[in-house]
Amino acid sequence: MVDFISVFGIFISILLLVFLKPHNKSNLYLSGFFFSMGSLALIRNSILYLQNETILQIFVPGLMPVFITSAPFLYLYIRSCVSPEGFRPLKGIDYLHFLPSIILFINFIPHYMQNDAQKTIFIQNLLRDPLTILEVKSLIYPLKYNFLIRPIAGLIYLYFTFKLLLDGKSVAHLLKIIKTDTSYKWYTSLTILTGATHVLVSALSLFFWNTNFNTELLDTYKAYMAVPAFVTLLLNVSILFFPAVIYGIFVDDLEDEQQESVSPMYATKFKGGANVEVDFKEIADQLNEYFQGKSYLKPGFNLSVITKETQIPYHKLTNYFTMYLGVNFNDWKNDIRIAHAVDLIDNGRAKNLTLESIAYSCGYLSRSNFVNAFRKKMGMTPSEYVKSIPEISLVTSAEF
Asked: What is the domain extent for residue 357?
C-alpha cells in the first residue's frame, strides 16, 4: 500500500501536465500540489517502511525543499479556480509563496557539497536508524525544525484557502453551491482532505518533538503515521471521482430531471468589488450576443460548449451563473428551453409536431426529461398545458 501512496500522487501530477490545455492552465498548480504530496510520501515511506537505498540516494535531501510547496500550490490552484480573474502566471509578490522552499534548499547546501562517499555513508546510516535524517548537514538551522515549520505553514495556508472558498459567502451558501456545482464539490473535497493530512501530521510532529525524538518511540511514530498515510491515499484517489479535473472541465449532469428546483432567472447584484462587477457585465454582454443564435436549444449544450465556443473560462461561467444571476446553470438552461417550448405551443407553431419533435427542438434527447422539466417549470405536463389552451386543445397531431 505504501508503494501505491508513494507513486500515485506523482503519477497524477504527470497526468495533469500531459492533458494541460490553454483552458485549464490552473492545473499547473494542481500538478505541483500532487507532485509535492507524492514526493513527501515517497521519501517518508522509503525511510520508515520501504528501506529503499536507491530512492534515498537520489532524493534525500534533494526533494525536501519540494515538500513545503504543497500548501502554496493548493492555495494558488484554488485561487485560480474560484477568483473572477482566473489563472494568472506567477509574478511579483506571488514568488514569496516559495521563499521557505528556497531557504530550505540553501539550508542543505553543506550536504549537497559532500562527495559521493560521504553521502553514501549518510544514507546507509539512515537505513539503520531513520532518525539519522536529523543529522543531515545544514547551513542555517537543524532539520528538526522542519517538523514544526512545514505543518504550521500548511495550516496557515489552509486557513487562507478556505477563506478563498468562502469569499464572503456564508457556510450555508457555500453548501448550497457545493450541492449544485461539481467544481466546488471537488475544491472542497481537495481542501478538506489536505487539511486533515496537515492536522494529523502536525499532531504527530508535535508528539515527536515533545518526546525529543526518542528512538524508542520510533515504532509508535511509524504506527501512528499510517493514519495520515491513509488520508493521503484518499486525497490522491479522490481525483478519480472527478475525472474531468484532469481535462480542466467539469461535465454537466446529462439527466436534467436530477437537478434541483428552479431558481429565479432574474439577475441579482453580486456583492463583490468593482472590478468583479465589471467583469461579470462584460461576460453578460458577450453571452447575450452569443445566445442570439439560440445555441442553448442544441442537444448536449453545456458550460463546456460555451467555454469552447466563446473562450470564456469555465470557472468564470460558473461564477457568472451562480453568483451574478443567482441560478444554477442547468436550471437556467431548462427554464429558457421550456420558455421556448411554451412559445411554440402558444403561437401554434407546434401544431404538426409530436411531443418528441418539440422536445428535440428544445434540446432534449429524452421525452421523459422534457416532460419532467416542463412540469417542474410550468406545474403541469405539456399535455395538460395544451388542453388548457382552447384554440389548440383539439389538435390531435401533436400527440401529447
From this structure: 253-400
